[in-house]
């Protein structure tokens, strides 16, 4: 049976090409793999090989022809002794089926009217009569990991200095003694490698907690975090999940210079497939860490070195968990909404305290997780206060706050009585000098000024 | 797929030899068909064909046991077929259709099968190396006696994460076989222009990882080396390196004009060292199979490949709702 040899697509972008040279002539016998012709694509000159065996019955496109569309018949292959059919080469080139019309993509929802107040979950995270005990963030994190390791054999901790040294920041203190070196594992200084081993272990059915001594060093591992951990569930059509927690201190500590003082909140928040937590209080550190370890997805858990030693009230309940995507309102107010997360909360709360003395009532929202983000809680608050200031230590272009500003523009524009102001770290690498570093970070005074600007007071 | 042996023997049976012939031929014909569908615009993007390297995966699969894992790079079609994944599902993924292994959302470079313990399909050169060691880490943690075949190329062997992984795999005695598929060209760069060492497996020695060179055009040599490596890993001695010297006949990807080597060089390999022709000759001269037996296998393979092409054309494109699924898992995955 005669078959048409079609002009091939030889690159991802080729639509037409030049048939530069025929390397066979009519009457030649060809077999699979023989080079038939040279074809110039948009990228290069390529050799075009035969797939089927047979005899070149007829050449339809002369060599030197330019602009030959992909899928145009260029020759006819016949079997030994067979004649070339009279209508050979008359068929029109098929449209590439890959271009099959797809249904229209759903348009981005553009609300014509101001929306109703979003449904938000403002239920308490623990019973109001739960007994409280003062605990540092450091202790809360350790307890969270220990509790989850007790209840699930598949959970293990790996990282630099997590075992014998008891943690570079003493977060894993005591874990080696309790769980042994099978489950609390010192790694060499090799972030890219051990991040990849962690992801592979998660594919293999374990639940790794990978500690980065700081998130600054995770830049060496970011390919494994994003390309391997975050995207595999999607690329596998849902088959291969990656339950893993990447955790460690993030952002500025004190006087450690530009390479050790970066806030990655806005980076990781952008990645579909990741979840991102950045808590402030010890109770949230504990409850969110337990949720993170149980989550079937990769979680980026951004901690803060300065907060590690700070004590907060932590409810003494059996199994303290805090859900992702649920903001916490620390302070109710009427005049302005201050949105923050992580160590930014200390500036937000200090500013609110001082503003109250001047009769300005600020509502302070702690996002706690950035992906998923409880934008509903922000919108609901702004519908009441009509003004918003965001607070973070990271850089401004773009920041978590600039995303929030965008959300408010699109979803609560009619409720805003002033532009949203983003208080961020300055747009500079972190300086070493003590006075410069203080100014490079966001300050409480800047938050107060921003609130005065948006309230015109 | 290839009959798995349960006991160690120095010879292979006629049936086993025929099975290797069949499995290698399936990969060859499948890849030729994929190249054809690419030319017709049915397959898009990048498409890296495995033609010429068939003996590597077929030989190593013959050394594997049920439950062992494998992970590789973007040149992955051969590995999937060799471990028993359905040609229809693979081809339909290449055409980006609903019936593909990843519902059309992964493509040529990103396919997975939990059932067959195939962990991808990875598009970033050498990223699969620590991932493979991580799979082995999980097996060691569970104490289940499984080994992981971690495939990468001579090009990937120059990535730093390979040596980060060698260090930890040796330090922790992970049951991982590093399979360097040395096809001599990292895209368009010949090994001698990119790699300071002639034999890449020797780079394991400073880490205390034993390794050896294997003739990748000889399926029996690959199988024998694979069995040795598997025995080493399974006995708890840690990682092992197989540097398998092989050759890809086609370009790096479909859009590779392959001007970095001569047509004569390729032709010489095809004529003198073809792994499928070698087994075919062995079957015929040893009178393990007749011409008619082999014709019947050829016919069966052609039918399987043609059916996969038909399936891959007829399977619909994924529903638009699929854009928004599989970004987050709702429940704990049952990763084995």
TrEMBL record, chain A:
EC class: oxidoreductase
Residue ranges occupied by any Lipoyl-binding domain in the UniProt entry: 2-78
Gene3D superfamilies: 2.40.50.100, 3.40.50.920, 3.40.50.970
Keywords: Lipoyl, Oxidoreductase, Pyruvate, Thiamine pyrophosphate
Organism superkingdom: Bacteria
Cofactor list: (R)-lipoate; thiamine diphosphate
Annotated Low complexity bias: 86-118
UniProt entry tagged with the keyword Kinase: no
Region of interest (Disordered), residue spans: 83-132
Gene Ontology MF annotations: pyruvate dehydrogenase (acetyl-transferring) activity
Protein task: The pyruvate dehydrogenase complex catalyzes the overall conversion of pyruvate to acetyl-CoA and CO(2). It contains multiple copies of three enzymatic components: pyruvate dehydrogenase (E1), dihydrolipoamide acetyltransferase (E2) and lipoamide dehydrogenase (E3). The pyruvate dehydrogenase complex catalyzes the overall conversion of pyruvate to acetyl-CoA and CO2.
Protein name per its UniProtKB record: Pyruvate dehydrogenase E1 component subunit beta
Organism field: Aliishimia ponticola
From TrEMBL, chain B:
Catalytic activity: N(6)-[(R)-lipoyl]-L-lysyl-[protein] + pyruvate + H(+) = N(6)-[(R)-S(8)-acetyldihydrolipoyl]-L-lysyl-[protein] + CO2
Cofactor needs: thiamine diphosphate
Keywords: Oxidoreductase, Pyruvate, Thiamine pyrophosphate
Alphabetized GO MF terms: pyruvate dehydrogenase (acetyl-transferring) activity
Superkingdom, taxonomy of origin: Bacteria
Record keyword Oxidoreductase present: yes
Occurrences of domain Dehydrogenase E1 component (ranges): 23-320
InterPro entries in UniProt: DH_E1, PDH_E1_Alpha_Subunit, Pyrv_DH_E1_asu_subgrp-y, THDP-binding
EC assignment: 1.2.4.1
Keyword Oxidoreductase: yes
Biological process according to GO: pyruvate decarboxylation to acetyl-CoA
One Pfam short name: E1_dh
Assembly and interaction partners: Heterodimer of an alpha and a beta chain.
Function (record text): The pyruvate dehydrogenase complex catalyzes the overall conversion of pyruvate to acetyl-CoA and CO(2). It contains multiple copies of three enzymatic components: pyruvate dehydrogenase (E1), dihydrolipoamide acetyltransferase (E2) and lipoamide dehydrogenase (E3).
Name by which UniProt lists this protein: Pyruvate dehydrogenase E1 component subunit alpha
């Amino acid at each position: 049976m005669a078959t048409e040899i079609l002009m091939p697509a030889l690159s991802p972008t080729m639509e037409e090409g030049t048939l530069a040279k025929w390397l066979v002539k009519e009457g030649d016998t060809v077999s699979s793999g023989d080079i038939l012709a040279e074809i110039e694509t948009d990228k290069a000159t390529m050799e075009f090989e035969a797939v089927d065996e047979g005899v070149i019955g007829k050449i339809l496109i002369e060599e030197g022809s330019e602009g030959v569309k992909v899928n145009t018949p260029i020759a006819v292959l016949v079997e030994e002794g067979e004649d070339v059919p009279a209508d050979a080469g008359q068929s029109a080139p098929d449209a590439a089926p890959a271009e099959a019309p797809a249904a229209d993509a759903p348009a981005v929802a553009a609300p014509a009217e101001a929306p109703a107040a979003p449904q938000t979950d403002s239920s308490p995270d623990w019973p109001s009569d739960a007994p409280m005990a003062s605990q540092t963030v450091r202790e809360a994190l350790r307890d969270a990991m220990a509790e989850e390791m007790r209840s699930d054999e598949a959970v293990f901790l790996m990282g630099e200095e997590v075992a014998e040294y008891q943690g570079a920041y003493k977060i894993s203190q005591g874990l080696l003694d309790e769980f042994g070196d099978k489950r609390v594992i010192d790694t060499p200084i090799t972030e890219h490698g051990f991040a990849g081993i962690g992801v592979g272990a998660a594919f293999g059915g374990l639940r790794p907690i990978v500690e980065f001594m700081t998130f600054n060093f995770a830049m060496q591992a970011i390919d494994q975090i994003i390309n391997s951990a975050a995207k595999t569930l999607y690329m596998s059509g849902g088959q291969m999940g990656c339950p893993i927690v990447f955790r460690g201190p993030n952002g500025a500590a004190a006087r450690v210079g530009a390479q050790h003082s970066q806030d990655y909140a806005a980076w990781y928040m952008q990645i579909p497939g990741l979840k991102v937590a950045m808590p402030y209080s010890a109770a949230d550190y504990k409850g969110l860490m337990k949720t993170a370890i149980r989550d079937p997805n990769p979680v980026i858990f951004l901690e803060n070195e300065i907060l590690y030693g700070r004590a907060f009230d932590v409810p003494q309940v059996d199994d303290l968990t805090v859900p992702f995507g649920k903001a916490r309102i620390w302070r109710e107010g009427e005049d302005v909404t201050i949105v923050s997360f992580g160590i930014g909360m200390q500036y937000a709360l200090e500013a609110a305290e001082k503003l109250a003395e001047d009769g300005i009532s600020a509502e302070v929202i702690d996002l706690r997780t950035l992906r998923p983000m409880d934008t509903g809680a922000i919108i609901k608050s702004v519908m009441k206060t009509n003004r918003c200031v965001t607070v973070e230590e990271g850089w401004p272009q773009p920041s978590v706050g600039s995303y929030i500003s965008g959300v408010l523009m699109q979803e609560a524009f009619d409720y805003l009585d002033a532009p949203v102001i983003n208080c961020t770290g300055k747009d500079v690498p972190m300086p070493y000098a003590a006075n410069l570093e203080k100014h490079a970070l966001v300050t409480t005074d800047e938050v107060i000024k921003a609130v005065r600007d948006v309230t015109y007071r | 797929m290839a009959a798995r042996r349960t006991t160690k023997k120095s010879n292979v049976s006629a049936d086993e030899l025929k099975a290797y012939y069949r499995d290698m031929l399936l990969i060859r014909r499948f890849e030729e068909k994929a190249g054809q569908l690419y030319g017709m615009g049915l397959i898009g993007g990048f498409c890296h064909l495995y033609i010429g390297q068939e003996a590597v995966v077929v030989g190593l699969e013959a050394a594997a046991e049920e439950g062992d894992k494998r992970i590789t790079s973007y040149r992955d079609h051969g590995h999937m077929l060799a471990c028993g994944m359905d040609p229809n599902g693979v081809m339909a993924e290449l055409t980006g259709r609903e019936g593909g292994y990843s519902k059309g959302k992964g493509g040529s470079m990103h396919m997975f099968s939990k059932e067959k313990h195939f962990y991808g399909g990875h598009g970033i050169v050498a990223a699969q190396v620590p991932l493979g060691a991580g799979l082995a880490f999980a097996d060691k943690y569970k104490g289940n006696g499984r080994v992981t075949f971690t495939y990468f190329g001579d090009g990937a062997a120059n990535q730093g994460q390979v040596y980060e992984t060698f260090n930890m795999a040796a330090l922790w005695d992970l049951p991982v076989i590093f399979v360097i598929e040395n096809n001599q060209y990292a895209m368009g760069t010949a090994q001698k222009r990119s790699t300071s060492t002639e034999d890449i497996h020797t780079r394991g020695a400073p880490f205390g990882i034993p390794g050896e060179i294997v003739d990748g055009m000889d399926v029996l040599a690959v199988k024998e080396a694979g069995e040795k490596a598997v025995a080493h890993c399974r006995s708890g001695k840690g990682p092992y390196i197989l540097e398998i010297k092989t050759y890809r006949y086609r370009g790096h990807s479909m859009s590779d004009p392959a001007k970095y080597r001569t047509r004569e060089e390729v032709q010489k390999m095809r004529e003198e060292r073809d792994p499928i022709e070698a087994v075919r000759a062995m079957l015929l001269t040893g009178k393990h199979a007749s011409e008619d037996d082999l014709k019947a296998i050829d016919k069966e393979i052609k039918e399987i490949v043609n059916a996969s092409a038909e399936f891959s054309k007829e399977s619909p494109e994924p529903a638009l709702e699929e854009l928004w699924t599989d970004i987050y898992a709702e429940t704990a995955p049952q990763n084995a």
